TrEMBL record:
InterPro entries: Nucleotide-diphossugar_trans. This is Glycosyl transferase family 2. It comes from the Bacteria. One of its GO terms (cellular component) is membrane. It comes from Sulfitobacter guttiformis. It is found in: Membrane. Keywords: Membrane, Transferase, Transmembrane, Transmembrane helix. Signal peptide: none annotated. One of its GO terms (molecular function) is glycosyltransferase activity. The keyword Transferase applies. It is a single-pass membrane protein. It holds the Pfam family Glyco_tranf_2_4.
């Protein structure tokens, strides 16, 4: 095994097969997937996928560490035999899709383009809701094709990355955005590169979780991020809760900072052929196909239940009243960044 993806899921069965098909086409050899408290059959689907040899499934039912659901899973992953054996590791979420722009658009092509890299930052490119109100059982990658501009000045969260890193002993544990627990004796071996193939400063080897914003970070690779889906799906996401900040309720703030539909980006369709073939193969299994259909039905039923409750009905109404987000100007972003830095200085100087 050369490339391992680690995933945490809850109530994502309607999207799981497309995600697996795409990342198989990208070049991942295996998937270590943790599930928790699933109501839509995601856990049962993962059991079947494990039977077929596509994934390794672990139920992450708690109790959870103080860091939350995802941190608990990644802590367990660090001890797993698959993680110890993997040559390269990338923790992902089910709404994130690796999009490689060089060569044949696979991981092998990316390594050929940056042969010295031991860690590559895959910066998010945010894809908005594309004015989709109701959820439909259509491929995410074909439905949501409008994204934030390649150069975005604000918010800084839009420039967060996930890290594809060589499992060479420099880092002992996988993390949500970057590998953790570095071995100080081996840290000098780390060679961090960004999505353009540019060498990154030393601080990235130990602490950064977002790329420099206000620049295009996507020359060789980007991470297509679909955090919203249709408005209906966002209501279900609010019901599901967050894997990292589980106590934070999803509202309009999260939506507005991610609903960019400024530019069309179809580059991920470069792998449409092998992805569709892989998806067809997965759905050729009658059990998986039925589980997918059942999860689609569950989403419809659950949304109907939620809309009978005032908080979720109010959220859905607000989503429909809120226009797509517009990027702020460079000048406006610099104004906010200036005050953010002033605030940091005040915080550091406080007794």
């Amino acid at each position: 095994m050369s490339h391992l993806a680690i995933l945490c899921v809850r109530n994502e069965a309607a999207f799981l097969l497309e995600w697996l098909a795409h990342h198989s086409a990208v070049g991942f050899d295996h998937f270590l997937i943790f599930s928790n408290d699933c109501q839509d059959g995601t856990d049962v689907m993962l059991d079947r996928l494990q039977e077929l040899g596509h994934v390794t499934h672990i139920r992450n039912d708690g109790p959870f560490d103080k860091g939350g659901i995802q941190f608990t899973a990644l802590k367990a992953a660090a001890k797993h035999e698959l993680v110890k054996k993997a040559e390269w590791i990338l923790p992902l979420d089910v709404d994130e899709f690796v999009n490689i722009h060089c060569g044949d658009h696979t991981l092998s092509a990316l390594h050929t383009a940056i042969p010295d890299a031991t860690a590559i930052t895959l910066t998010w490119r945010l894809f908005g809701a594309a004015s989709q109100v109701r959820y439909a059982d259509t491929p995410v990658l074909e439905t949501f094709t409008r994204a934030a501009p390649a150069v975005l000045y604000w918010p800084w969260r839009a420039s967060m990355f996930k890290t594809l890193y060589r499992n060479d002993g420099v880092y002992k544990k996988p993390g949500v955005h970057r590998p953790r627990d570095s071995n100080e004796k081996k840290l000098a071996k780390a060679r961090w590169y960004d999505g353009n193939g540019t060498v990154l400063p030393e601080q990235f080897a130990t602490k950064r979780i977002f790329s420099n914003f206000g620049q295009d970070n996507y020359g060789l690779v980007q991470l297509n991020h679909y955090p919203l889906g249709a408005m209906e799906s966002y209501v279900l996401k609010a019901d599901r809760g967050r894997a990292v900040h589980s106590d934070d309720l999803l509202g309009l703030d999260y939506w507005v900072e991610r609903n960019f539909n400024t530019e069309e980006d179809l580059t991920i369709q470069s792998l449409a052929g092998p992805r569709n073939a892989a998806l067809k193969a997965l759905k050729s299994d009658p059990a998986l196909a039925q589980m997918h259909e059942d999860s689609v039905s569950w989403r419809s039923s659950r949304f109907s239940q939620l809309l009978q409750k005032e908080p979720f009905r109010a959220l859905f109404g607000r989503l429909m009243m809120t226009p797509p987000s517009h990027p702020v100007t460079r000048q406006a972003a610099q104004f906010m960044i200036k005050h953010a830095n002033l605030g940091r200085k005040v915080h550091k100087s406080a007794p």
